[in-house]
Write a structure and sequence with these properties.
Length: about 180
Amino acid sequence: MISKSMEKALNQQIALEGYASYLYLSMASWCENEGLEGCAQFLYRQSDEERGHMLRIFRYINEVDGHALSPGIKEPAHTFKSVRDLFEQVYAHEQKVTRSIHELVSQSYEEKDHTTLNFLQWYINEQREEEALMRTILDKIKLIGDTPQSLYFIDMELDKINQMTAQAEGGEGESV
Ligand code: OFO
């Protein structure tokens, strides 16, 4: 059984993860329209992952006798200034999610809610990995540059990440 304030905070986290899923979906669509297939596939997968993160919290709340609420999602941006701008936004959003997870952890400590504290460990690790991945992508974009001529090489880098992820998952590399 979780407290009402923890239930509310976890429901807010659901909304944040849900928004990430829709934001990354919108970004995938923009990339696909720009002919950036590697970036698009990467973002489609990230969007799916964020939905998974949302559902994991959703199920947890109900499991511990709370009430998970399906969130209203604010409409994300549909266009982006550049690939660099897009990934800077992804990184900023991931940092925001990390801060929010850490606040949930602090609240769990304060409430001596060891069950939720334990549940959140997975998210702490996930956020560390996600932030590191997005930083790596941004570093590559800075190295390559994002002039129109460089976009092909950025897209190839994203494609390499997609292939590595697919190998790690033992799949064929297509998530949509
Ligand atoms: Fe679930 O926020 Fe990214 O990983």
